[in-house]
Amino acid sequence: MFNRLRQLLIISFGGALSLPGSAFAYDGSANDTISQIDVSDDTNLGLRVYFANSTACGNTNNWAYVLSTDPNFQIYAAVLAEAKVMGSTVTVFSTRDSRGYCHLGYVQLH
Length: 110
Known about the structure:
27% helix, 5-stranded antiparallel β-sheet
């Protein structure tokens, strides 16, 4: 019984992780290569990622940011840097913050 419950939890959790970003409350997405990465302190939007041909969250910004205080920041930074170096396409989902900037919430590396 315990093993069956454990299997169901693993399947449920894995299924939730594999849902497309549109299943969550994001303001926009980009499916593009990364043209530039800027790194600053968190008061200046921490890690900013610029997209070659896309806007990031349903507005005119072609960039989105992640803060060092965000969960999984180090993983975001590693995946985004790898995508830039390899020239790989990423799909990102982000929300607009109170200033209208795009805050990353989900990244998929292709």
